[in-house]
Design goal:
about 20% strand, single chain, alpha/beta, 13 helices, Rossmann fold
Length: about 400
C-alpha cells in the first residue's frame, strides 16, 4: 500500500504533538513495508521534494497572506482575511493534485489541514482515492482550531464559525473514515453533525518516552517543585496556574517552561511579579525539565484533544494535576495517577497543589501509579498497527469513490 500523508507541518518544522505523532506513524508504516510520502507546508514558494530520515517529503509554499506558525500575532484584519482564504483555498488544492499525479497513492491520510483547507479533500476525491481524516484539533469546527472564546470553551459554533465551516460538515460525510486521537474530540465533532455515516475510530497517540526522571517518593516537610511545560497562552491556563500557585500557601517553586506570543509572555511575567518562587525557564528539553519537578500541572481551559504532555509527565513518574476537560480525562485518572480540577472552580487547582504538598502518602501513591497507568500511550507499535488496520479497511471496502 502506498500512503500519502498530508499535514500542515512535518519534521523539522514542529508546532505541536500532531507533528511528533505523525512522524512516528509515517516511519512505523514505512518500517512495515508500506510506501509512504508526506506533503506538508514550509516557508517559501513552490513545491520542492526532500528526504527526511529516509522518508520522501514534499514541501509546499503556503499561498495565503502570511505564515501562521510564528510567535508574532498579525492584526485582526489580516487574521480575518487569512481565515477567509483558508475557508477554501484552491491554490493549495492544486499542490495536492500535483503530488497525487506524481505519486499515485492508494490511500491518503489527512491530519491537520490548517493552511491546506478542505480543498485537499476535493483534490483527493477527484482522483478517486480513499481518504481518512485524523482529528488532532478543532480546525474543522472553528478557524482558530480551539472552539474557545472569552475564557471558556464553546459548545456551539456561533454564526461566524458556522458560516466558515458549514461546507466542512457537509463534505466530511464523503470521506472514507475519521479517526479521533481521543473519544472526547471525536464525540465533539459527531455532536455537531460531522462525519455522519462513515467509519469512526479512536486511536490514542503514542510516544517513545524514556524515563528521564526515576520514581522519587516524597518525605514529610519537603518543598514541592511544581512544573508547567508547553505553549504560554491564555487557552492553556497559565494565568490560572500562576494565580493559584501564588495563593496556595505551599512551600515550593513553580517552574514554567515554554514559549508563546511575545505579549502573552510579558503578561504572565507581570502576573508573577516579584515572586521569586516563580521561574520562567524559556524553551527547555523535557528530558532536562522533568527531573527538576515533583508534580506536573496541565491547566488547559480549552477542550484539549488529548494532552500528550500529561502522558509525558505520567511516564516520568510525576503525579499530574489537570483540568477536567477534553482528552485529558482519558489519561489523567482522578485519584489514581493525578487530580482533575475544574476551571469553573478556580480554587480547585490551588487545593490540589496544597493536597500534594501536605499529604505525602497521597503524593507517593499517585507517583507510584503514574507510569504504569499510561502503558498504552507508550506503545508505538500499537498505534501504528491500528492506523494500518484503518487504512487497509478503507482501501479494501471503499465504495465512496
Amino acid at each position: 500500500m502506498k500512503i500519502l500523508y498530508i499535514n500542515a507541518l512535518y519534521s523539522p518544522y514542529i508546532a505541536g504533538g500532531a507533528e511528533i505523532s505523525l512522524k512516528l506513524i509515517v516511519e512505523g508504516m514505512q518500517a512495515k513495508g508500506h510506501e509512504v510520502v508526506v506533503l506538508s507546508m514550509a516557508p517559501g514558494e513552490g513545491l520542492r521534494k526532500e528526504q527526511v530520515d529516509e522518508v520522501q517529503v514534499y514541501r509546499a509554499g503556503l499561498k495565503n497572506r502570511y505564515w501562521p506558525f510564528s510567535n508574532e500575532r498579525p492584526g485582526k484584519f489580516s487574521r480575518l482575511a487569512w481565515h477567509l482564504r483558508d475557508w477554501y483555498n484552491p491554490a493549495m488544492g492544486a499542490y495536492v493534485k500535483e503530488v497525487i499525479r506524481l505519486e499515485q497513492p492508494s490511500a491518503v491520510s489527512c491530519h491537520n489541514l490548517v493552511g491546506w483547507s478542505i480543498a485537499a479533500w476535493d483534490a483527493i476525491r477527484e482522483a478517486g482515492i480513499p481518504v481518512v481524516q485524523v482529528l488532532h484539533d478543532m480546525y474543522l469546527l472553528s478557524p482558530d482550531s480551539t472552539m474557545f472564546k472569552n475564557g471558556k470553551p464553546r459548545n456551539s459554533q456561533g454564526l461566524i464559525n458556522w458560516l466558515l465551516r458549514y461546507r466542512h460538515r457537509q463534505q466530511s460525510a464523503k470521506l472514507g473514515a475519521v479517526v479521533g486521537i481521543s473519544h472526547s474530540i471525536l464525540q465533539r465533532f459527531v455532536a455537531h453533525g460531522y462525519f455522519q455515516g462513515i467509519r469512526q475510530y479512536v486511536i490514542h497517540n503514542a510516544r517513545r518516552i524514556p524515563e528521564a526522571r526515576a520514581l522519587r517518593l516524597r518525605a514529610e516537610g519537603q518543598p514541592l517543585a511544581v512544573g508547567y511545560i508547553g505553549t504560554l497562552s491564555g487557552v492553556k491556563g497559565v494565568e490560572w496556574l500562576i494565580e493559584q500557585f501564588k495563593g496556595s500557601g505551599i512551600d515550593g517553586q513553580l517552574h514554567i517552561a515554554g514559549r508563546g506570543k511575545s505579549e502573552d509572555e510579558q503578561h504572565f511575567r507581570e502576573l508573577a511579579g516579584d515572586d521569586r518562587r516563580i521561574v520562567f525557564r524559556g524553551y527547555v528539553d523535557p528530558a532536562q525539565f522533568y527531573p527538576d519537578i515533583d508534580v506536573l500541572v496541565v491547566p488547559s481551559l480549552w477542550e484539549e484533544p488529548l494532552g500528550m504532555v500529561a502522558v509525558e509527565g505520567l511516564a516520568n513518574h510525576l503525579p499530574v494535576i489537570a483540568s477536567n476537560r477534553g482528552g485529558l480525562r482519558e489519561s489523567v485518572e482522578d485519584g489514581r495517577n493525578g487530580i482533575l480540577c475544574d476551571p469553573d472552580v478556580p480554587e480547585s487547582l490551588g487545593g490540589a497543589l496544597f493536597a500534594l504538598w501536605r499529604d505525602v502518602a497521597l503524593y507517593n501513591r499517585l507517583a507510584s501509579e503514574a507510569r504504569p497507568s499510561v502503558s498504552e500511550y507508550l506503545d508505538i507499535t500499537r498505534m501504528v498497527n491500528e492506523y494500518e488496520q484503518v487504512l487497509q479497511t478503507i482501501t479494501a471496502n471503499d465504495t465512496t469513490y
